[in-house]
Amino acid sequence: MPCLNGSIRSLFPRLESIYVASRAATAVAVITWMITAPEAALVVSELTFGMIVFVVHLIAFYLIWRYRPTFIQDVFTYSLIFDVIFVTYLINYTGGAHSSFYLLYYLNIMFSAYYFSLNFSLGISTAVTTIYLISNPGLITDIPITDLALRIGFVWFFSITVGLVSRHIKQSEAKLLNLLDSLNESTTELERSQTRVETIYEASRLLGEILDDRDITADVLEIVDSILGFELCSIQICSPDQAYLYERGRLVDNVKILEGLREIIPMDGVIGQVIAGRKPRRLLDVEHSEGYLPTIEDARSALLIPMISHGRVTGIILAESTKINYFSETDEKVSSILAASAAMAYENSRLHAELEKMVIVDELTRVYNYRYFTERLNDEIRRASRYKHPLSLIMVDIDWFKHTNDTHGHEAGNIVLRGVADVISRTIRDTDIVARYGGEEFVVILPQTVQADAQFIAERIREQVEQTTFGENTRYRALNCTVSVGTTTYPDNGHSEEQLVQLVDQAMYLAKGQGKNAVVAV
Asked: Which domain-ending residue is among 297, 324, 351?
């Protein structure tokens, strides 16, 4: 039977303590009557037995209330039934129809009406009325009908009145408790969201300290996995010409993927709209979202967040879920914070790469400079030594370069320098490194290359330069030159950086000594 006040969650005072106190007062009243009433001497043994049972019951109720509160509702039911029986027993031995202890019935009725439901209280009222009339036949003959009607009427009056009031209180309490539950849930969600925002903010702040875009991608995916918990997250970056997107990283079921990703993603449909509008978008059900192509086959909802840095969209963070309407407004706001930090981090990485390139690239010829050459040569020698691989060097010097400058001017000399650098860059392999060594000299590092292969590449460079005409689109139109090329190989001809550079320099000068436009290996 329903019982709101009997439950642990209640906004109103609990009745157990009041019940125990009222029953204790009942015991005191009965004992007082036994001491003061003359007729009590005739039934002292019966009343003593009744009081012993009553006190034992009261102690049992108190102990269960204190130490086994989960059973209190059932105990309350049995206690109220016991009280009805006890009051009836008390009335029979204290005057029957003339006993004033029938007033204790009202106490039972009010407790049952308040603690239990109205229907239960009406049932108790029916039982009390029936038992009272049957156990006291003198009520019909010895008591005025108006007095009897008042006694019985008050039973039902208290039952209905207190029951209706209790029902209203319980309904109001239930509504208030539900309201408090909703408020607690909202407060908890707000606190959780605030914690997520603070954590995201702190984690995102550290992104600005990372300069490698691969590490940025890994960290962003780690934040998504550990804080947001999305099933899928894809980081997509805009191409330099803003014509398409390419995938930089992906998180699928807690697994970060940084290789083998999509290289060209059309910037159309929903993705194009998000980039053009520069606003996040939540798709409640992708099956009803025209113009959206899911990343995972069973995707049902999606969240698209543009990454914006300095007013320019640099890409998007795309999240998907297999559940409909999975992403909340909070997810959108928190993801937007992450997207802004990621965009700034990627932009910083790009600017740093450009700055670093400016530091290590020769401004005129657009190949690496001497500083970068020395650093890489040192690294490549250590790597070759560790893995027992060969390493070759090629040094290229432009023949008669001073004559070109003196005849045509320094601008023509610059054209030749850039042209030779382009020829060398096109002729060597992707793994080789070309740098401007100084003046009109270039040097090429050839990792894992034996001497014969180095000579072949050197000869190809010499031939290509000889066959190329520079300055065709300038006022000089026809500038030609040749080069003298020297090669050497590690570890056959040297072990240190200084030895290799010295040997390749000697080889190059030997080529010049042989009449220029030649290749010499040392």
From this structure: 351
